[in-house]
């Protein structure tokens, strides 16, 4: 007999078998998770130590073993690294962006900002909902009030938008600086923000092809700079007798899986040659040598100075290229080949016989540099820099003096800064920037409370709690700076009533005009925080039951009929009546 799943209901508080009710159980779980993120908000935020501790037993005297660790204040990194067993953990993770299992993430493909604020905002909405639930307000009515409040928030963002043409303050560098606030750049924050703004001006919104971050340990963070081109940090020039620097370079890119390099054709397994004389072998060798020489001559005639291939370059081609003074770099990742194409303007040639001058790209300098000694190796690390490209569609940030946990965290923060700078300069109904430092949250909360008076009584309660949740974000912001959250928010509420640009400028703690102080947030980030937090709260509030679909008993063996008993009854019916089916 097949086993049946057991069903457990958690939505009946009067059931003696169940001590947990919904949605209270999920709200409690999110509240516990949000405690990890509470200290990571704002310019004076704290970091969290993540330990990878393998299971070594259940004994109390077991010594703690640590495989790896990370120190981070980035909300996305925290959420993706936490081992959350509760089902709401997956809801939280999927709320920040696309779910990519395992190690399928591509650096720069997804840029998450405001994740900690999303978690804290959703938690504040849910925590405030508990009082409404206990007062008898139905979850659907709470969700309706939250949705109405979200509409007011989005309308306020549109009316508060500051566009590049507005000349009201809030430059791209200000947006990038605010995105970097609270991270590990120290006194170099202004310089890195300027570099991020310059990158955004070149490429717009960054992605995995148009923007890359290369970190090196040598030098100081002050040596960091924006490369108007591409950096190959895993490839080197193939021969020592090739030039290590080429000025005013013409770049040839050879890609594709069949002819993405400079190699002799492979001989198929069933290929047979009948040799009539020893001279026949020499004929084959001379034919291959002539083909190599013709191809290299074609490359030279096209005016090529640098050859970059996706696949390998054999020793014969290397020698011919070196004889002509051509720099060659092999086995370049396809994504880096795309970046080179976007930065230099070169077309990736898929077939070697299509090499032509019209496919070449240009850059001022191609140089191989020895930068640092590799860990546990005698050889030094080398990188190849393509810089000085004209109007590049792909740029690279070269960050020096980064090592340890900083080496893995800095690229993520820089990408957020470039994204913020790009979003601040776009012109549209949902683009631009708004005052930061809690000014926008206070203005939206005040407008929601005013709008709530036009709704029915139960929606009013939900909308007022929504406004309170917005103010709680400001409380977390100032609490992490060591300030009194109650007094500061009260003072800010009074000051913001007369000027909606007034917020808290940290770390000074001044309540002043945030636009003049250069503290701004991008509208897409703000809108994403409010929408994601509201949607997550609505999703949790609508869950009022839980089903445990764990099967009990022995499962059916492989090959056995799943419906064994009904099948036997059908067979008996056919034998007794001679009918082919039980339905007759």
Description:
- Keywords: ATP-binding, Chaperone, Nucleotide-binding.
- Belongs to the TCP-1 chaperonin family.
- InterPro entries: Chaperone_TCP-1, Cpn60/GroEL/TCP-1, GroEL-like_apical_dom_sf, GROEL-like_equatorial_sf, TCP-1-like_intermed_sf.
- The protein is of the alpha/beta class.
- Helix 13 packs across helix 14.
- The N terminus is likely disordered.
- Among the domains are: 97 residues, TCP-1-like chaperonin intermediate domain (GROEL, domain 2); 132 residues, 3-Layer(bba) Sandwich (GroEL).
- It is built from 17 helices and 16 strands.
- The strands form five sheets. Strands 5, 6, 7, 8, 9, 10 and 11 form a seven-stranded mixed beta sheet that branches.
- It is 42% helix and 14% strand.
Short description, anyone?
By secondary structure, the chain is of the alpha/beta class. The chain has helices at 24-37, 75-81, 88-95, 115-134, 139-159, 172-180, 189-203, 279-301, 315-323, 334-344, 405-425, 439-452, 457-479, 485-498, 514-517, 523-541, 564-577, and strands at residues 48-52, 68-72, 211-215, 225-227, 230-232, 245-254, 306-309, 327-329, 348-349, 361-373, 380-387, 395-399, 433-435, 502-505, 510-513, 520-522.
């Amino acid at each position: 007999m097949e086993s049946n799943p057991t069903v457990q209901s958690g939505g009946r508080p009067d059931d003696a078998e169940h001590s947990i009710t919904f949605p209270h159980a999920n709200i409690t779980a999110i509240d516990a998770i949000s405690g990890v993120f509470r200290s990571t908000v704002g310019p004076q935020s704290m970091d969290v130590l993540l330990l990878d501790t393998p299971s070594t037993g259940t004994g109390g005297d077991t010594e703690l073993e640590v495989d790896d660790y990370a120190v981070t204040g980035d909300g996305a990194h925290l959420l993706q690294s936490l081992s959350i067993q509760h089902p709401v953990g997956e809801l939280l993770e999927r709320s920040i962006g696309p779910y990519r299992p395992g190690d399928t993430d591509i650096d720069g493909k997804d840029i998450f900002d405001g994740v900690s604020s999303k978690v804290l905002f959703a938690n504040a909405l849910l925590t405030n909902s508990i009082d409404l639930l206990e007062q008898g307000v139905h979850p659907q009515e709470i969700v309706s009030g939250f949705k109405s409040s979200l509409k007011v928030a989005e309308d306020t963002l549109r009316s508060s938008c500051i566009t590049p043409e507005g000349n009201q303050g809030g430059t791209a560098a200000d947006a990038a600086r605010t995105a970097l606030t609270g991270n590990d750049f120290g006194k170099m924050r202004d310089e890195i923000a300027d570099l991020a703004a310059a990158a955004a001006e070149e490429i717009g919104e960054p992605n995995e092809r148009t923007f890359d971050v290369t970190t090196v340990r040598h030098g100081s963070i002050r040596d960091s700079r924006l490369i108007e081109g591409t950096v190959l940090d895993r490839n080197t020039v193939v021969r020592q007798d090739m030039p290590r620097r080429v000025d005013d370079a013409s770049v040839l890119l050879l890609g594709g899986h069949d002819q993405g390099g400079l190699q002799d054709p492979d001989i198929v397994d069933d290929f047979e040659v009948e040799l009539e004389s020893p001279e026949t072998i020499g004929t084959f060798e001379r034919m291959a040598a002539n083909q190599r020489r013709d191809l290299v001559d074609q490359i030279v005639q096209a005016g090529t100075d640098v050859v970059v291939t996706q696949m390998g370059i054999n020793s014969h081609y290397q020698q011919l290229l070196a004889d002509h003074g051509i720099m060659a770099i092999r086995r370049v990742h396809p994504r880096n080949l795309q970046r080179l194409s976007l930065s230099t303007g070169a077309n990736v040639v898929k077939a070697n016989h299509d090499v032509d001058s019209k496919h070449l790209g240009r850059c001022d300098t191609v140089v191989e540099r020895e930068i640092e000694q590799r860990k546990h190796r005698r050889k030094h690390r080398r990188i190849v820099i393509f810089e000085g490209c004209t109007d590049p569609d792909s740029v690279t940030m070269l960050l020096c003096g980064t090592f340890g946990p900083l080496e893995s965290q800095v690229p993520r923060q820089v990408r957020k800064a470039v994204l913020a700078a790009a979003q601040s300069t776009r012109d549209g109904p949902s683009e631009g920037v708004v005052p930061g430092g809690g000014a926008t949250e206070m203005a939206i909360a005040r407008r929601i409370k005013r709008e709530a008076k036009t709704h029915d009584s139960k929606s009013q309660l939900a909308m007022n709690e929504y406004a309170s949740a917005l103010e709680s974000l400001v409380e977390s912001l100032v609490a992490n700076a060591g300030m009194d959250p109650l007094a500061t928010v009260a003072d800010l509420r009074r000051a913001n009533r007369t000027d909606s640009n007034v917020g808290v400028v940290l770390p000074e703690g001044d309540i002043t005009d945030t636009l003049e102080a250069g503290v701004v947030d991008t509208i897409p980030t703000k809108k994403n925080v409010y929408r994601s937090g509201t949607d997550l709260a609505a999703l949790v509030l609508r869950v009022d039951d839980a089903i445990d679909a764990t099967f009990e008993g022995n499962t059916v063996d492989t090959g056995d009929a799943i419906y064994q008993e009904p099948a036997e009854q059908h067979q008996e019916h056919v034998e007794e009546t001679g009918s082919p089916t039980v339905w007759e």
